[in-house]
Amino acid sequence: MLFKRFIRNITWPAGISLLILLLLYLSALFAPFVSPYDFKEQSRKYPNAPPANIHISPLSEWGKGFFYVHPVKMADVYKRRYEEDKNRKVYIDIITDEGRLFGLSEKEERLFIFGSDTLGRDLFSRTIHGGRVSLTVGILGVLISYSLGLIIGSISGYFGGLADNIIMRLAEVFMSVPSFFLLLALAVVIPSNVSSAMTFLLIVVIMSFIGWAGFARVIRGMVISERERDYVMAAKALGASHRRILFKHVIPSTFNYTIISATLSIPGFILGESALSLLGLGIQEPDASWGNLLASSQNVQNLINYPWILIPGIFIFLTIMSYNFLGDYMRDIMSPRDSGGVE
Amino acid sequence: MEELLRIKNLKTYFPVKKGRLAKRFSVVRAVDGVDLTIYKGETLGLVGESGCGKSTLGKSILRLIEPTEGEIYFKEKSLLSLSDYELRAKRKEMQIVFQDPFSSLNPRMRVDSIIGEPLAIHSLAEGKVRERIVELLNSVGMGEDALKRFPHEFSGGQRQRIGLARALAVEPEFIVADEPISALDVSIQAQIINLMKDLQDKFNLTYLFIAHDLRVVEYISDRVAVMYLGKIVEIGESKKLYDSPRHPYTQALLSVIPVPELEAKKERIVLKGDIPSPISPPGGCAFHTRCPVAIERCLHEEPLLREIENGQKASCHLA
Predict the structure, then answer these.
(1) CA distance A194 to A203
(2) Based on the structure, what is the number of domains in chain A?
(3) If B87 and its partner were Cys, which of A279, B51, B64, B82 is the partner (CB 3.0–4.6 Å)?
(4) Which residues neighbour B50 within 8 Å (Cβ) at sequence distance 6 or greater?
(5) Same structural domain for residues A159 and A255?
(6) Does A11 reach chain B within 8 Å, measured CB to CB?
(7) Which secondary-structure segment (H or E) carries B121?
């Protein structure tokens, strides 16, 4: 089994990547639990608060909490300068009464572990919620574009002739559409009152419909070489239908490539969504995605004064690196050198 | 003898593109007008140099490659007039064994699904598929332990056995053996040949046995046909053809079989030149460019396959 081989031979980079991705996906799945505040909740008293300094409690105070912070107070409204009240300690509860993973024991104080934005919203909570969009866009996009590419490409390659010609010319048309301009144009067309979820789906679908063409071409090439193999002819000689030959013999032969290539193209979708949201065309405020969280860093003044708004970018970076390492690892274990068989 | 398969004037041409910009087509005449009858229960050997169209003929007969022209009658029914759907059902009666046992089995499938595939396609042995697969494996001399293994775990000879078992699964009457042993070690070749002979007796099979090893063909065949440039140049009963070849091409082929005797004196006829291109075969007798005895007539007039004696036919003006 592929899965067994995947686990048995795992390397350090791949293992760590897998762990990071698992953590990210779990946190996105349980976002309301993991985040200490609602991602829309505004704390007007704390705009642009810096990330909190978390201290480890001395042993004697472990009964009250393992970690504590000094509560902050705005010292300079214009410069958004905050000062810690060193005399007071507010302990961090693990699993709070409200059913959150962690939170401050004193409800009137605020805990911003990644800092807060201009409206005083907790950046950590927003990042975790934003992950729901950014992490699914890749998987969903790859799922759609790869199933399209796989089916269209293999039909094109298997049947050849006129069908092949038409499909490939169509693919070329799709590939020559400047995708970014198309997206901009569509952003204008999509009415502004559409919900975020809808916009999100539209983005995915649009990116997938542009993305299938290149993949379909590769699959077509693989299918053309595969359909000439004796075992395909043997299946034909046995009386197998075209559908059976395609789905049982020809398409599975491209799976090695498909899995690797899919893993490696997930980052493209994540970046695509980020770019769109960054430009304000994707997920709209107050909903969060990693892309639109980064949008506030377009303002250089913001970036200089409140550098912590770049933290969502670190999440994008981590995700993409992880997918790339994982894809590389998949390529290694499925390389033709040892793919004499599946086991 | 009862007739199983009759081929009339079968032609299989492949278009090839010529020229880089302008599309000019020319054709490779891989099979160029073959008449052939195969009788029930016999083994017809088909020999010839590589590139002479043997395999294409075998695959054309099964419509794995669509013939361009001609007629094929299998048990008096025309194969070429069948629709796709009818043909798929008909495929149960005729099977093929391939030359390369490494590419003829899907590397991603286990042996039980490979042999089970024909059963699934034709809904055979329903309810006792596994028993049937084991039975088939046993009939080709393999055990139950092979069921869950992948093709790459087997040697060439074993894979060829699996290929045979797959072909036998549909209980065919006719099998095209497309150089089934030429990719195997010499030590394994005999095993497979003998297995094929046993299976023929057991299941009453008819073989079209394609090969370029003349001794193997002599051993297994009842009749032998010799192909040159897409045409059959000589056909006859195995023994007679080997004893007294009539066509100069057959004579040349047979003269180079090594004889395992010290004192054997044989004159080898070495043909000059290469086999001409099947895109533009020479006019007249296609063999005249290499024939050691060609005369003026051979250059202009194409000889027809005609009976020389007792069923042995050759297409040579001089035979």
Answers:
(1) 12
(2) 2
(3) B82
(4) B212
(5) yes
(6) no
(7) helix B111-121
CB pairs under 8 A between A and B: 67
What is the reported pTM?
0.78
* Cβ density class B63-98: b for 16+ within 10 Å, e for less: bbbebbebebbbeeeebeebeeeebbebbbebbbbb
Q: How far apart are CA A76 and CA B179, in angstroms?
A: 90
- What number is the ipTM of this complex? 0.87
Work out the minimum CA distance from B138 to partner chain A, whole angstroms. Answer: 20
Alpha-carbon separation of residue B13 from A312, B10, B25, B53, B283 (angstroms): 64, 10, 12, 10, 17
Choose among A230, A234, A342: nearest Cβ to B108. A342
B3-314, which class in CATH?
alpha beta
Q: Does residue A63 share a domain with residue A140? A: no
Judge contact between A177 and A210, C-beta under 8 A. Answer: yes
CA distance A146 to A155: 14
Q: Which residues of A touch B105 (CB under 8 A)?
A: 231, 234
CA distance B115 to chain A (A): 10
Tell me, yes or no, whether A264 lies in a domain.
Answer: yes
Q: In a structure prediction context, what are the per-residue pLDDT tens digits for chain A, which is 343 residues long?
A: 667 777 777 888 899 999 999 999 999 999 999 998 888 888 888 888 889 888 888 888 888 888 888 888 888 888 888 888 888 888 888 888 888 888 888 878 888 989 888 888 999 999 999 999 888 888 898 999 999 999 999 999 999 889 999 999 999 988 888 877 877 777 777 777 777 777 778 778 877 887 888 899 999 999 999 888 899 999 999 999 999 999 989 988 888 888 888 888 888 888 888 888 777 677 777 888 888 888 888 888 888 888 898 999 999 999 999 998 988 888 777 765 444 444 3
Residue A66 lies in domain: 52-104
Q: Which of B59, B99, B118 sits opposite A238 (nearest CB)?
A: B118
Hey, where are the domains in chain B? 3-314
